Amino acid sequence: MPSANGQSSGDGAAPRALDVSDLEVTFHRRGRRLPVLKGITMHIERGEAYGLVGESGCGKTTLAMAAMRYLAANGTIDAGRVLVDGQDVSELSEEALRKWRGGKVSMVYQDPTQALSPAMRIGDQLAEVYRYHEGTGKTEAIERARESLRRVAIPDPEATLHRYPFELSGGQQQRVVIAMALSINPQLLILDEPTTGLDATVEAEILDLIEELRGRINAAILLITHNLGLVARLCERVGVLYAGRLVEEGAAKQVFTDPRHPYTMGLLRCVPRFGMNKTDAALQTIPGTLPALGEPLKGCVYSARCPMAKPVCVRREPDLYAWPGDGGARGAAEAEALPPDPAAYSPHHANPVGEASRHVRCYFSPDVPEMPVMTPVLATSLEARGATEGNVLSIENVQRTFKDGRKKLTAVSDISLELKRGETFGLVGESGSGKTTLAKCVTGLIAPDSGTIEFEGGQLRPTAGRRSKDALRAIQMVFQNPDSTLNPSWSTRAILTRAVRKLGGADRASVRGKVDKLSADVRVEPRFLLQKPLDLSGGQKQRIAIARAFAGDPTLVICDEPASALDVSVQASILNLLVELQTNEHVSYVFISHDLAVVRYISDRIGVMYLAELIEVGAAAEVFNPPHHPYTEALLSSIPTLDFDDARQRIPLRGTMPSLSEPPSGCRFHTRCHRLLGDICREQEPPLQEAVSGHTYKCHIPPNELLVLQTETAAAAGRGSAADAAEPQSIGASDLSAPAEV
Amino acid sequence: MLRLIGRRLLLMIPTLILASVLIFALAEVLPGDVGRSILGPYATQEQVDALNTELGADKPLYERYWNWASGWVTGDWGESLLLKQPVFPVVMKGLGNSLLLAGFALAIIVPLSILLGVFAGLRRDSLLDRGITISSLSMTVIPEFVSGVVLLYVFAVALKWLPVTAMPPDGSPFVYRFYYLILPAIPLMFLELGYIARMARAGTVQVMEMPFIRTAVLKGLPRRRIIFGHLLRNAMVPTVTVIGSQIGWLIGGLVVIETLFVYPGIGKLMVDAALTHDIPMLEAAVLIVAIIYMVSNLFADIIVALLNPRIRKGA
Fold it and tell me: Are strands A245-251 and A475-478 parallel, antiparallel or unpaired?
């Protein structure tokens, strides 16, 4: 049997798990050289976990691939070295490289559905690692595959061996990928966005697993992610990449609580902290966009977007100065004295200056805590947004069942809710809980089997085809992926013009004006109107998609994960835009998202769905604080936050999500509930309990008892009441001026 | 899996009925007067009426169809108007000959085209890839009667390396037949090779870019294992479907080649039957070709299901 701690014995000073020095990687496209990584120097100690953050396109994955020696065919390493476990990766022979991959370094990927071979049994996929790395015989390899599945706590390892990837859930697939990566006890485990795209509770499970495995394996971890909370939870150190440059590096806690590079600060400010709401703080965004590959940059790579940039920043690029220290100030003085350097970049700037554990590539690190704050529009109160007594939308007892072969799947079960003018209703729940089906019933894309949907006082017809033009115009939708919702062969002006004509019914002359106004409203510069969606960035595309939805002055816009596919800074600007449009146009939103902090931020009221049922509804702050439904409690406990003193108790959900075709009897959540009372939960459907006026949940435990239970849990976890966890944290917008004071 | 095959077989029944109705309609109803269309404009009306009575063409349509279709099922395919002998053995002999030619051609085409296509796909945009793609594409655009005539002239007439006809003299050993089939098989290869190879190349290129291939590389598998274990069974799905649809054509659609090489296959049989108004023969031959199409597509679907566990498990 392979021992989990097979540390190589021998020469005392073991080499670092990863040691990258002055690494330059260039992509070549149509004869152009596009530098992706510029003089990266970093290392990961044995057994250490290192987080690499930055927006997409910063070069995170390229760095990982360089460690695997698996760059795209048009990518070359122009300078520098990558040592893994002391071995220069570029010097390996073909055969040695093969054994190297999966042996010394292994990888866990973003999308486990795609990462597993679709037509091969799980057992064979695991066994082949042993067979081709250690020459293990077939039977023994399968035996070891079974063992490795046990290690990642797969419920039924024996059965899983014989399954195909499509027969497993996303979380189980990722467990298999992790088991595969750990088969040969690697020195370095690269996790590339390992939980992106997984549901909150599944993400939490995978994180628990990784954390738990860290105690048993000796692999160092390189975690690549855009989710800062993940790094805060898993990693000791963190590096921040921007445009191929390492701009800040240090202990994760220090970097996140006291950022000293404007980009790090910008990233931290644009994520909604847990408990933030649009009425009390606006999200900070990073102005401008990431430079395109190969775009010439003067001086500091970040200067074009930096709110504190000074002339010296474009004169010469700052080095990676030790912090705390006066390296930045001296560097700035030096740069002032020198003649302007047109190239403004030379590889010698790459090395960290000094032996300190923390480095920042900025002349003005001491001033970063006082980085100027932008003042986007704050949401006004619900009344100011035009809310009146009456409801814009009221859904009553809506039910929708699908047929899957002989099975019946109830995707939406007896749901009622209402929405006021100018109000945002957040809908949360894991995939398959029925959020999108409910949204489709409202837009008329699918007809409910029973129940009524009232809109502005009148009853809506079940399908869009039978609704009046006015009803169609008034209910619009913004989808998750603007790539597939905007016609790729039309210019954006054509897309908006058509929408204005169809929805607004305007004449030719006024159409042009309306399109211009719409694009100005969503902050898309007129020059982009001539381009096709392909030539726009993700954020711009989503802005166009939002403009399209607003073309006919809608009353209700359904946003289905509108910012989930975007980078955090872009997400912040899209959320701000939605808030601003609501303030000006008094539109109502149904906002669907799996990101609880985002939902909490943007919503006035929140509904939680579980297995086709709406199990809890109430004001945003109330739903996210006790007393609340045990499922909501578990969901909330599962989110990784940036709070380093976070002692919230993780509430792992038992078992897996039951099938919609055979929902559990009694309370649908009873199979996974951590507050199970007993037979009453299994046998009787829970009543609707009212915690406070307007906040209801479906559970057998009455609110006062639930409050005691849930406050006890929070207290037992060591830190105040759970309500504290919902307070804006360190760099929340409430104390933007002094983020260092934690 | 068995359920899948069973379901597909059941589905073949309505398809077959529809095909038979269409064939019947095209052969007997559309020409109007069957007897007239057989005997031609110079026959007298009495002769035509007599023939119609003999053929049963004066009976109501549904009755004629029923008689024909039920006879077909029981193996009574009627009598050839031209040869004055039962249709069944004649069609079966033609089918056998066609199967031999198609099988011989396929045995070369399928492995060769998949090999070339996968090679080209694995070395995408290399010289080898360009060479394979361009040459196979240019071969595909040459019509078989052009390549057939040129090949006949060069190899049979000028060089005398290969026989001119496609059938060995009577009494030759069976293996001789393959030697005689080389020349007719080459134009078919020209046509099919490029098509199937392009399909195999496209499948390979597409799958090579899938994340699971990256997983396979980065878990340190040898190249051979990646290709045979992970690439091929996923990349070959579209190719198998295309081969399935081409088999039907190779067996029933070789009218030109069989005529050019005077090969007594079912394609030539159909053309001759059509030209001589031998309607029972024509109907039987066309229907058998329709069945071959269906069966080869069914086989392709079964292979696809074997390759893809998702389909096999009915998900």
Answer: unpaired
